[in-house]
Write a structure and sequence with these properties.
- The protein is of the alpha+beta class.
- Helices cover 39% and strands 8% of the residues.
- The protein has two domains: 79 residues, Muramoyl-pentapeptide Carboxypeptidase, domain 1, CATH 1.10.101.10; 128 residues, Muramoyl-pentapeptide Carboxypeptidase, domain 2.
- The chain binds zinc ion.
- Zinc ion (ZN) binds next to β2.
């Protein structure tokens, strides 16, 4: 009995400590590392979960047609992606991820791990359902996929001059996908896909599709592909399937 009380007290203390830490974190300047904090410098040849976390955030910078694997191994694609990220954000491009690179990532990362210009509420379940359930994979996998897709979309947005991009569709449950006439194998049911438009026609759907080729997207469908005259679809499937004939793709 006594041990149970002590356990409960200890749990309460931990909970309070946790709440305190969160409130401190929120009060300080843009401490976006509430999501994830790197504790070592990473470079070619290193591996681990921290490399994967880095890869997720720089995968949109590996180069034209490079659909980078998130494998926790810091190889040539990761070096290229880190260099691309560094030069895009005005850092010295040495391909090594250290404090300056992390601090830039923290500055464009929200506490919920979404990138600065895309929010979970924009990409969660369509058809007014919200959430991440009812797709082709578990809700956890859907969320992980959406996170990866959002970070590539953030790179795409930066490539397009940091003009706002609107999300017209993100994750869709199987029932939602059917009701909106999505393809039976739609990537939207995996959380890997995002449909985008500019705001007031800028950037154009073709500009989005063209730049997406350099932002790590395996799937790109835009104007000229059936059903894609009012948005450009991008997804992070493995491999490369691009079609937007009116945009020269
Ligand atoms: Zn789509």
């Amino acid at each position: 009995m006594l041990s149970k009380i002590y356990a409960a007290l200890a749990a309460s203390a931990l909970l309070l400590a946790g709440l305190f830490a969160v409130s401190i974190g929120t009060a300080s300047t843009a401490s976006a590392d509430e999501c994830y904090t790197w504790t070592r410098t990473l470079s070619s040849g290193t591996s681990g979960a921290d490399v994967s976390q880095l890869q997720i955030r720089v995968a949109g910078w590996a180069g034209y047609g490079v659909n980078m694997g998130i494998d926790g191994s810091y190889g040539p694609q990761t070096v290229a992606a880190v260099k691309g990220f560094q030069s895009a954000y005005g850092l010295s491009a040495d391909g090594v991820a250290g404090p300056a690179t992390y601090s830039k990532i923290y500055s464009i990362q929200d506490p919920d791990c979404s990138p600065a210009h895309f929010a979970w509420s924009e990409v969660d379940g369509g058809c007014g359902q919200g959430g991440y359930s009812g797709g082709k994979v578990s809700a956890t996998t859907v969320k992980e996929n959406l996170k990866r897709a959002m970070w590539r979309a953030e790179a795409l947005r930066h490539r397009l001059g940091d003009k706002p991009l609107a999300v017209t569709s993100g994750f869709r449950s199987i029932s939602c996908n059917s009701s909106v006439g999505g393809a039976s194998s739609s990537q939207h049911m995996y959380g890997t896909a995002i449909d985008l438009t500019g705001v007031g026609g800028t950037p154009s759907l073709c500009s989005i599709a063209q730049q997406a080729r350099s932002a790590g997207f395996g799937g790109i469908f835009g104007p000229g592909y059936p059903g894609h005259s009012d948005h450009t679809h991008v997804d992070i499937r493995a491999g490369q399937v691009w079609s937007a004939s009116q945009c020269g793709i």
